[in-house]
Amino acid sequence: MTRILALPLLAGCSSPVAPADSTGGGAGTDSGDRGDSEADTGSSADTDTDGEASLSFSSPGSTAENPVTFTVATTGEVASVEYVADGEWSLGSSTDSGRGFPVTYTFSTLGSRSIEAIATDGEGVEVASAMLEVVVSNPGADFDGMGAWLWYIEGTGYSHDELAARLVDLGFRRVLVKVADGEPSCSSWPELCDASVPATYQAAGLEAWAWSYNYPGDAASQAEALSRAAETGYDGYVLDIETEFDGASSSLESLVSAFAGARDDAVADGSASNSFVLAATTWGNPADHDMRVDIIDSYVDLHMPQTYVEAWGSSYMANAAYWVEVGTCEYRDLGATKPVRHVVSTETNEITAGEVAEFITASGPGSSAWRVPGEGTPMSIWSTWEAVDWGMTRFGDEPDCR
């Protein structure tokens, strides 16, 4: 079993495009800022703008899990209700008065969100409004904090204990450890079966996620790696899906569905918790590779695009935030409804600390860096990493791709 990972040298991305419309009770994705304040305990008093109509939130309460369904109770002549997040981003509108004017929305920026419901009459005139402070989370998934990808420990100059301490000092939240290449083999990848590996990182305060490079065929056998990783004590699993699946549909769905099934089985038998994350990483420009993002999206909790601006060239590095936004919109256009958190490559140490910071600020919590220095990459990468605030908690808005 080879220990070599094929990582892409990509060329360009498509222009920002719009996600699926979220109006009329359909699902959407948000563009808001991640709030840091404590949420209030429900909706504020409703506002009656003309004395003839009023509304108040019926659901959700002060906390909610994705996807969130908003409904209101109204009096008077109300024909339509629009929901707006953080005073700027429309979540959609509904005319379905019989069900409380429902709109269902999937937030990609979590935390405290300010939601306003705005009622209009049949002439389109605003007649009432109400506010709700709600803390939004993803069920069984926490993507806060930055991650560092580990290809394998040999060649880094560190033991797992030492690496854990170094990553914590830099502000990382998780480490992603390679455990398989195709079908699982504990002799080729002892990290898959050695419970001391995830335990070491967890004891230091890091989440430990496993990852594998994957191929078409033998999906059930490859998915056994997730089952074993859960038994070993890992907190999540990432499928690395690349050139072998360009333009593929059936083989891709077979693979991702097999891993999703293995995750569900692990949760059911108690070897994994409900918070065990299943994610996928593939191209930062998936449209150029005819990658079926929509198929992947049906089974995973998180997308982790390999947006390697360092490999793409100096003009991409100099506009890191822009290319992150372009990539996010491309994922949305291809059917991604789950959070999109990009991977920044630093393996040639050409990208500057400032460009890395711009990249992860645009990408958001749950972003990550490829890869822990060593084994063919310069150790000077550590100096670049030391100049980045990997513990940052404030991020930019997800782009409005409409």
Protein architecture, described:
The protein is of the alpha/beta class and 402 residues long. It folds into two domains: 42-136, Immunoglobulin-like, CATH 2.60.40; 147-386, TIM Barrel. It contains ten helices and 18 strands. The chain has helices spanning 160-170, 196-203, 219-232, 250-268, 293-297, 309-312, 314-317, 320-333, 353-363, 381-386, and strands at 42-43, 47-48, 54-59, 63-65, 68-75, 80-85, 89-94, 103-105, 111-120, 126-137, 147-150, 174-181, 207-213, 236-240, 277-281, 302-303, 343-345, 368-370. The strands form three sheets. An eight-stranded parallel sheet has the order 16-15-14-13-12-11-18-17. Strands 1, 2, 4, 6, 7, 9 and 10 form a seven-stranded mixed sheet that branches. The protein is globular. The model is unreliable at 1-50 (pLDDT under 50).
What would a concise description of this structure say?
The chain is of the alpha/beta class and 402 residues long.
